[in-house]
Design a protein that fits this description.
heterodimer, A: alpha/beta, 8-stranded mixed sheet, 13 strands, 17% strand, B: 83% helix, 0% strand
Chain lengths: 319, 173
């Protein structure tokens, strides 16, 4: 039974820990990040800063309590819509992503294009260390792309990974079988070689998605598909090479991107108001803390989680 | 555990400090202090764990020397306990520090109220520390309080000397 003294002792511990934790979580909230911290915008910010980091996938957040970093498309979509509704003069996308799923990248791309077409909000993308494949897909929806000279970008293409473990299983005497309702129900099974019918089906999916990817870049960048195709064989480009290929518009860092954004969105303030979107919630900060603690305590756990996650997603814009 | 924690907090005179409760209080104090530091320095999640390790090390070292100084001084006043009993008592006496996070929270609402709460926490620490020291060493609580203040003052002087000596050597040689 719970006695009063035990409850009181537990309450003291919980209250003291909760207070300390919430102090810290509040202090590191991205909403505090601003060029002018004393003048955090109450109404429309000049620039809405949206970060896309890690693999892009469906979901409200890229990382749960036990998942590493990543960008959930729902969270990003919400951030874009919120910035548009707040009538931010510009959205600055900070992209540091090796890619993601085709559907999640496409969803973010479409929302950015909608923002460009249906509002006065300008979109500028700043490419970080890596903005490849799905990361570039998203960036191509921007009015202007700024990259670092050494940014790794490009990797335009679609991939479906397959595995055939049957020779190994044969060696150890394991036989696999299944009962299926249709000939393609166990497509991508790692326990047998894929059939010509399956290969044709999967290649069709890849080709369709690839064509969509090319058309999206062409639409976003205002370039003919033929001009993109020479660089769309999956190759990785440096920022400098991407500039020469007209896949990015300028080279620079964060502050250059701010200047470019000011210019494009016609922001006259010397120090524009920058607000991070979406606003951070207590649970998200707590999740980040746990993720960081776990990844520091158990080396390689993030990579293992990502590998597990990506094994379940067949159509990927990520290599 | 919760029973022992409660008794240690509110009926310390009747209860000798147990190692488990001392460890619990030490853990809580270090965790709260780390989060407070994280709040003041706006540390990202990735930097918090190294800070926790640093605070654990710093706390252990600081506590050892603080308890050693208290042990030496209170032994002069006729203290009778073993060093490790005094070490546990010192740890347990620091329990009001777990409310420093609450003080910071209040400070964000009202600076004056927060400062008042911080003062209350400081007085609380001095009271509980002197009480547990007095119980452990079987000395008067006022004598225990004077010992704590003397040790703090001596520590301050030692730190001052630590800075002054290199300066003396630098200028004098």
């Amino acid at each position: 039974m719970w006695r009063t003294d035990r409850v009181l002792a537990l309450a003291l511990i919980v209250v003291s820990l909760f207070a300390a934790l919430s102090n810290w979580l509040t202090s590191v909230s991205p909403q505090a990040d601003s060029v002018r911290p004393s003048q955090v915008a109450i109404d429309a910010p000049d620039i809405a800063l949206i970060q896309i980091s890690g693999s892009i996938s469906e979901g409200s957040s890229g990382g749960g309590f036990l998942q590493g970093g990543g960008s959930g498309s729902n969270k990003i979509l919400k951030a874009i819509k919120q910035a548009r509704d707040d009538k931010a003069k510009a959205i600055l996308l900070q992209i540091n992503s090796p890619g993601g799923t085709a559907s999640a990248s496409n969803a973010i791309y479409r929302e950015l294009i909608r923002t460009r077409q249906n509002s006065d909000t300008k979109v500028v993308a700043l490419l970080g260390d890596v903005a490849a494949s799905g990361g570039y897909y998203v960036a191509s929806a921007a009015d202007h792309i700024v990259a670092n000279a050494d940014t790794l970008t490009g990797s335009i293409g679609v991939i479906i990974r397959t595995q055939n473990l049957s020779p190994l299983l044969e060696k150890v005497g394991v036989e696999n079988g299944n009962f299926k309702s249709g000939q393609f129900k166990d497509i991508l099974s790692p326990y047998r070689e894929s059939t010509p019918g399956e290969q044709a089906l999967l290649q069709g999916l890849v080709d369709e998605s690839y064509q969509g990817f090319l058309e999206a870049i062409a639409e976003g960048r205002g370039m003919p598909i033929d001009a993109i195709k020479p660089y769309a064989d999956g190759r990785v480009l440096s920022g400098k090479q991407a500039l020469e290929a007209k896949l990015v518009d300028s080279l620079g860092n964060y502050f250059d991107a701010i200047e470019t954004t000011k210019e494009i969105a016609q922001i006259s303030a010397d120090e524009p108001t920058i607000r991070s979107y979406p606003g951070s919630r207590f649970q998200e900060r707590l999740s980040e803390l746990l993720s960081a603690t776990i990844s520091q305590s158990i080396p390689g756990v993030q990579q293992a989680q990502q590998a597990l996650q990506w094994n379940q997603i067949p159509l990927a814009l990520w290599e | 555990m919760l029973d022992a924690f409660y008794r240690q907090l509110f009926r310390a005179d009747e209860t000798p400090p147990s190692s488990a409760v001392a460890a619990l209080i030490a853990g809580l104090v270090v965790l709260v202090m780390t989060l407070n530091a994280g709040s003041s320095l706006q540390l990202p999640p990735s930097a918090l764990s190294p800070f926790l390790v640093l605070f654990l090390l710093g706390g252990a070292l600081g506590l050892f020397w603080f308890a050693a100084a208290l042990f030496a001084l209170t032994s002069l006043w006729g203290g009778t306990s073993h060093f490790f009993t005094l070490l546990r008592s010192t740890l347990v006496g620091l329990w009001p520090l777990i409310f420093s996070g609450v003080a910071l929270s209040i400070q964000s609402v009202s600076l004056a109220l927060g400062a008042l709460f911080s003062l209350a926490v400081t007085i609380g620490v001095l009271f509980t520390l002197s009480r547990s020291l007095a119980v452990a060493q079987s000395i008067n609580q006022w004598l225990a309080l004077i010992s704590i203040l003397v040790v703090i003052a001596l520590s301050g002087l030692a730190i001052f000397g630590l800075f002054l000596w290199p300066l003396m050597l630098l200028v004098g040689l």
